[in-house]
Each structure stands twice: as C-alpha cells, then as structure tokens.
Write a structure and sequence with these properties.
Radius of gyration: 12 Å
Order of helices and strands: EEEEEE
Largest sheet: 6 strands, antiparallel, barrel
Mean pLDDT: 89
Distance between the termini: 18 Å
Number of domains: 1
Length: about 80
Amino acid sequence: MQSEQIDVISYSGRKGDERPATFILHGLRIDVAAIIENWIEENYQDRARKRYFRVRGSDGALHLIYFDLQVHAWFYASRNITTH
C-alpha cells in the first residue's frame, strides 16, 4: 500500500491523537463527516503500531487514513474504499 503523509486536525483526548476531524489532501481540506470503522494494526517484527480510520469525507468519498504511532504522523492510504 502506497501511503503519503498528510496534515490532520484531530480530536485529542487523554490518549493524544484519538480521531481525525479534518485532513488536507493535495491542498484540499476534507472534513470527516463520519468515522465508518477504526482499528489498530501492529507489526510483529518491529512492534510498530498504526491506528486506521475508514472515514466518509465532506467530499462524499470514503477514505482510509492512519496514524503511525512510531513516527507520530498521519498518512493517507486510499480513496473510495469499500466497507466490509
């Protein structure tokens, strides 16, 4: 999966970057209209953890973004992805 780093405005609760509210993709501001699904994936070799969010954006599309807990940065994974 090819990912690109993005800027995200997120709701930060007691755990830090808990959920995305808005993200910037290629200069376009996209508000998160709904979080469809979220989960954590962990790489068993290096224990790197990523918090994934499948969201519906204000542009009407589904997007997959994630927060990489190892590098403390947000990344964009894909657009118009289907739900399970």
